[in-house]
């Protein structure tokens, strides 16, 4: 769906932010984009939606070069959800806020209503459709930002650190929402520092380090036997992966601490049956 | 006595304290200066964002005349520090006049009535800009000896046009801003 | 000027502006401009001046040119253009040689300007870079939702609210914390000390006497 070919980019007067990065994003993937601050993650996503133009390489959307497409055009295929939802929310009700994008694109009244209703439904915001957005909690405002992007019916959603400033319960709810959207066929690129989230929810991980792509593959593969490299890239190994690494022979691939506990439980039950009949 | 004290405390906290007006006004003036730099012109005319923003500040905060005068003079000083005007000092006079007029209109009982209340921001934006602009070009004309035809046919029409543009801008920005300012907390 | 007291520098700037208003001789005005430019270069701000001077010169030239069709003589037209440049460059020189906190301190302690208004001025300038990046971020966020400026001037103006309103709302939200912070830090306290050196010294009084003398000469000369 989206091809990034040998992209290089530098901000004026600064060292290169991206060096020769290539990436192919297929339909319906759930990708985690990780890396230290300054590794180039946000720059890469900005190039994807046309907020920045690369100095070398090209971006192709559905086989067509996206060179002259600005973010307003790319918004129809790729939704971008910024870290701070307050930078875009300004209308009196949630429904009006979500309707902003379809209005800008000149959709008819019926199309707009339909888009807004669908977006609110997808994000669980029907009950607050008539509420004043600025009076709602940050996690709800983040959902409004997501619904706003979904109203344009994109096939891919890029979210830049959407869980920052949220507690554990809010993060869980947000990730469930994203998982649900992905199951409906919407591709997700999640820019995150949270390695637990990355391991638990994404299928594929892409890691950038000093502007270069250093890993691109299944998320479990990121932490399997790569402790030193991962640390060198400035990433923290999630607890589940660390323990699974230690118990490699017993547990295989695990994606979360709960998953690990369940797997260990199963392993131990199996050993009890096999041997003496007593618990190990 | 206790009940009265508690009530007073809650009222002050909801408004934001004694210096909320300083915080709001300084941020609004900063926005005004930014927009002067980045806002595109529309058919060759730009709104005077600094006037719009201090009008917005006065509409929301409803300060007394002395405070409004202070806000106007500060806005004038900001213009002097950052703009390329023919006679920069005219900004002190013009923004003082604009701010005072806005403050007087905001407190005028006539503008509390029905439809007029709904378009009060538009009227304040229009009149303040016209008064400010007229003061500015007149002071400039007097001190810098600008020829009368340039003053009448070059400068005054610009004042009128910017006034019309500013009134729309102030009207658009006011109600959402007032709503948030009056909002007492998160749900 | 860097060694003079801040208030002295401000008085100097105002006096230069008064002379500029009174003088109509383009040669004298050009000489004043030359002195200002030399002082700015000496203060190490030549680059900042260069950028401003280009825009200023264009506006001044335009202002001078529009007067010519109305029976204004060429020297007078040039003089009015120069007046504008001299006055504006005087301010550039002021900010090149005087730190803003020192100027604020001087205005409050010596010129008796109420502290709230001096703070309003410096605070507004201080937040300009913040809101500049904020305006860029808002523009990007709205563009990613399909915002495109309309061709119709009225619609364009009205849709521009989508870029301005989020900033205004953010300012209101920020102002709450800012106001609390001001109060917690004793803003409005009658006892206030400034860390800046603003006191007048011998050289400042000499400069003031010189300024008075020049002003008298300018008034007599014209």
Summarize the structure in words.
- The complex is a heterotrimer of chains A (about 280), B (about 190) and C (about 220).
- Chain A has about 280 residues and is an alpha/beta fold.
- In chain A, about 40% of the residues lie in helices and about 20% in strands.
- In chain A, strands 6-7-8-3-9-10 form a 6-stranded mixed beta sheet, sandwiched between helices. Chain A has a 4-stranded antiparallel beta sheet with strand order 2-1-4-5, with helices on one face.
- Chain A is globular and about 65 Å long.
- Chain A starts with a strand and ends in a 6-residue tail after the last helix.
- Chain B is an all-alpha fold and about 190 residues long.
- Chain B is about 80% helix and about 0% strand.
- Chain B has 8 helices and no strands.
- With about 220 residues, chain C is mostly helical.
- Chain C has 10 helices and no strands.
- In chain C, helix 1 packs antiparallel against helix 4, helix 3 (about 45-65) packs antiparallel against helix 4 and helix 5 (about 100-110) packs antiparallel against helix 6 (about 115-125).
- The chains are: A alpha/beta (about 280), B mainly alpha (about 190), C mainly alpha (about 220).
- Chains B and C meet through helix 2, helix 4 and helix 8 of B and helix 3, helix 4, helix 6, helix 7 and helix 8 of C.
Tertiary shape of chain C: flat
Instruction: Kindly report the greatest chain-chain contact and the residue count on each side.
Output: B-C, 58 and 62 residues
State the helicity of chain B in percent bands: over 70%
Per DSSP, the total helix count of chain B is 8
Instruction: Please state the oligomeric state of the protein chains shown.
Output: heterotrimer
Work out the strand percent of chain C: under 5%
Distance between the termini of chain B: 31 Å
**C-alpha Rg of chain C (nearest Å):** 22 Å
Q: Outline of chain B, from the CA principal axes?
A: globular
């Amino acid at each position: 769906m989206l091809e990034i070919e040998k992209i290089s980019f530098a901000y004026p007067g600064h060292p290169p932010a991206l060096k020769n990065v290539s990436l192919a994003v297929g339909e319906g993937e759930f990708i985690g984009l990780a890396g230290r601050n300054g590794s180039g993650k946000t720059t890469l996503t900005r190039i994807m939606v046309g907020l920045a133009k690369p100095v070398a390489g090209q971006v192709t959307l559905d086989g067509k070069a996206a060179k002259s497409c600005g973010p307003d055009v790319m918004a129809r295929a790729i939704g971008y959800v910024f870290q701070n939802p307050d930078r875009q929310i300004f209308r009196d009700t949630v429904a009006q806020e979500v309707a902003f994008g379809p209005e800008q694109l000149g959709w008819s009244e019926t199309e707009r209503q339909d888009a807004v209703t669908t977006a609110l439904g997808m994000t669980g915001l029907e009950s607050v459709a008539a509420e004043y957005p600025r009076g709602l909690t940050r996690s709800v405002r983040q959902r409004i930002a997501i619904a706003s992007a979904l109203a344009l019916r994109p096939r891919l959603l890029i979210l830049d650190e959407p869980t920052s400033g949220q507690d554990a319960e809010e993060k869980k709810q947000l990730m469930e929402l994203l998982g649900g959207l992905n199951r409906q066929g919407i591709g997700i690129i999640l820019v995150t520092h949270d390695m637990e989230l990355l391991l638990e929810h994404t299928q594929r991980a892409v890691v950038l380090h000093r502007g270069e792509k250093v890993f691109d593959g299944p998320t479990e593969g990121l932490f399997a036997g790569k402790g030193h490299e991962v640390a060198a890239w400035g990433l923290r190994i999630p607890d589940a992966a660390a323990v699974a690494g230690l118990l490699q022979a017993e547990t295989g691939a695990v994606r979360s601490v709960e998953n690990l506990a369940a797997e260990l439980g199963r392993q131990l039950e199996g050993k009890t049956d096999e041997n003496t009949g007593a618990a190990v | 006595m206790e009940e009265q004290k508690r009530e007073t405390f809650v009222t002050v906290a909801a408004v934001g304290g004694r210096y909320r007006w300083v915080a709001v006004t300084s941020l609004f003036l900063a926005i005004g200066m930014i927009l002067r730099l980045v806002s595109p012109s529309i058919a060759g005319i730009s709104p005077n964002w600094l006037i719009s923003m201090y009008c917005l500040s006065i509409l929301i905060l409803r300060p007394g005349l002395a405070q409004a005068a202070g806000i106007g003079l500060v806005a004038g000083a900001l213009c002097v520090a950052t703009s390329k005007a023919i006679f920069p000092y005219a900004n002190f006079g013009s923004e003082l006049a604009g701010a005072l007029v806005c403050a007087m209109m905001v407190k005028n009982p006539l503008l509390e009535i029905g439809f007029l209340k709904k378009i009060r921001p538009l009227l304040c934006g229009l009149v303040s800009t016209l008064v400010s602009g007229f003061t500015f070009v007149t002071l400039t004309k007097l001190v810098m000896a600008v020829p009368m035809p340039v003053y009448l046919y070059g400068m005054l029409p610009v004042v009128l046009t910017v006034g019309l543009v500013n009134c729309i801008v102030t009207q658009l920005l006011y109600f959402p801003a007032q709503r948030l300012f009056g909002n007492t907390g998160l749900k | 000027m860097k060694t003079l007291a801040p208030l002295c520098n401000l008085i100097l700037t105002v006096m230069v502006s008064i002379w500029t208003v009174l003088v109509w001789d383009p040669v004298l005005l050009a000489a004043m401009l030359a002195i200002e430019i030399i002082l700015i270069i000496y203060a190490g701000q030549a680059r900042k001046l260069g950028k401003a001077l280009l825009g200023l010169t264009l506006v001044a030239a335009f202002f001078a040119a529009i007067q010519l069709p109305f029976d204004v003589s060429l020297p007078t037209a040039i003089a009015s253009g120069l007046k504008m440049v001299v006055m504006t460059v005087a301010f550039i020189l002021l900010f090149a040689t005087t730190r803003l906190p020192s100027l604020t301190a001087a205005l409050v302690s010596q010129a008796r300007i109420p502290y709230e208004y001096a703070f309003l001025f410096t605070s507004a300038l201080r937040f300009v870079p913040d809101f500049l990046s904020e305006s860029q971020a808002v523009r990007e966020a709205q563009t990613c939702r399909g915002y495109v400026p309309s061709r119709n001037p009225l619609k364009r103006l009205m849709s521009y609210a989508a870029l301005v309103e989020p900033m205004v709302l953010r300012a209101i939200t920020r102002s709450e914390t800012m106001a609390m912070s001001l109060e917690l830090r004793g803003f409005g306290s009658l006892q206030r000390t400034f860390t800046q050196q603003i006191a007048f010294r011998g050289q400042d009084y000499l400069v003031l006497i010189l300024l008075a003398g020049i002003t008298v000469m300018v008034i007599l000369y014209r």
